[in-house]
Amino acid sequence: MVLSKAAPHSDVSVHSTFASRYVRAPLPRFRMPEESIPKEAAYQIINDELMLDGNPRLNLASFVTTWMEPECDKLIMSSINKNYVDMDEYPVTTELQNRCVNMIAHLFNAPLEESETAIGCGTVGSSEAIMLAGLAFKRKWQNKRRAAGLPIDKPNIVTGANVQVCWEKFARYFEVELKEVNLRDGYYVMDPEKAAELVDENTICVAAILGSTLNGEFEDVKRLNDLLVEKNKETGWDTPIHVDAASGGFIAPFIYPDLEWDFRLPLVKSINVSGHKYGLVYAGIGWVIWRSKEDLPDELIFHINYLGADQPTFTLNFSKGSSQVIAQYYQLIRLGYEGYKNVMENCRDNMLVLKEGLEKTGRFNIVSKEEGVPLVAFTLKDNSHFDEFQVSHLLRRYGWIVPAYTMPPDAQHVTVLRVVIREDFSRTLAERIVIDIQKVLHELDALPVRVAEAATVAVSSEDIGGDGATENIAKKTALETTREITNAWKKFVMDRKKMNGKINGVC
């Protein structure tokens, strides 16, 4: 007698996941599947596909934190099911958020008494924080203009052309003109003098950046403040300053404490900072702090009671997780002033190691500054044989994600590579990436022809052919042309490898 029986078609408990039928079926991409699958199979299939993502620790394009201590990871997971907006149900989480606001406000030298409550809130990154600060400036400007019987239909913000896209979003979404100070060769941040010249009676604020995304440089907020003080005296205006300290707000207080950029300057009315950058918290947390209660119009604050007690709220988002708020509080009390100072000094020291290593190759010009966000932005001294996009592309073979990009107007002819130094980027990694960059340069040097020039002609001829090639190039932007050249170069390298019988690259 046979005592065993065949397992049902849907029973995978007797098999490994990889021996089951679920790994043989294509993954759904457009519609939900008709039937459920076991949790083990769903986990394994998704986890396997995620392996093809880049390694976050080697993503040197990002300013966002990619490592936290295991104890903080536990706090995050234990609170991941708490909705931050339910203040009455989760009063301790609300209290922790308020403590963070107070600590950050004092860090930025807000004019507060020791036990006085600061004005600010947690946000989903600096993008939301900037939206809220911009709305406060717009409403204050509108209220003042209405009271004086003046039109309110043409508000503007003055910034540098190096601002993050979130400022462009604010301007477009909330109908504010963005007046940008163009950059120039060798000067890649907003010029305070030119910014002050662009200010008029419709300027709701001037936005300065403490830590430009392009090269990490701190803009001269003190100089901007002094220029606007004089202009306000001459014109009778009251043009304020917002400091976008998304990257630099958790750096400057610890390693450049004497630098005046924050609420020590009278015209700085609000500051945003990203807790998920050098605040050392995983992605999803930002902060916006106002100088005083008078700088945040009351009509922008909503009061709700359908979740319990009366809850004042000023956010663009409503429901959001509590984990990052709790993680921020953990970092603030865990590290303290001395701990943050040590982390930032380590980042700066490792940045100097990388900078010196690149300079020793003799192949690069450094366009970042030592005083600023700990990153190294650099360009090729000679790009006649290959360009920065090609260097970036080949570095991915070693696991490194190093962005290459063109500068904004009027420096768009400059192409830059950038390596961001975060807490988890050690000296060993700094030395390792210099070695890998040298390997990439050696391989590119070995190319027999000026591939980019040949690729430009080939691409242009294919698109139009004959005499129309020159006209076609003229219609393309510099970035489009660079991308076409890079793609043609990739094809050349692959064809060359196939001819040599070497299909596989270095992993």
Largest sheet: 7 strands, mixed
Which regions have little confidence, pLDDT < 50, spanning 5+ residues?
452-475, 500-507
- The Cα radius of gyration reads 27 Å
Helix content: 40-55%
The CATH homologous superfamily of the domain at 87-335 is called Type I PLP-dependent aspartate aminotransferase-like (Major domain)
The CATH first-level class of the domain at 87-335 comes to Alpha Beta
- Return the string of H and E elements: HHHEHEHEHEHEHEEEEHEEHEEHHHH
Say what the CATH topology of the domain at 87-335 is: Aspartate Aminotransferase, domain 2
Count of separate DSSP helical elements: 14
Please tally the β strands and state the result.
13
Secondary-structure arrangement, i.e. CATH architecture of the domain at 87-335 = 3-Layer(aba) Sandwich
What average pLDDT do the residues reach? 88
* Strand content bin: 5-15%
C-alpha termini separation: 56 Å
Q: In one word, what is the shape? A: globular
What class do helices, strands and sheet pairing give?
A: alpha/beta
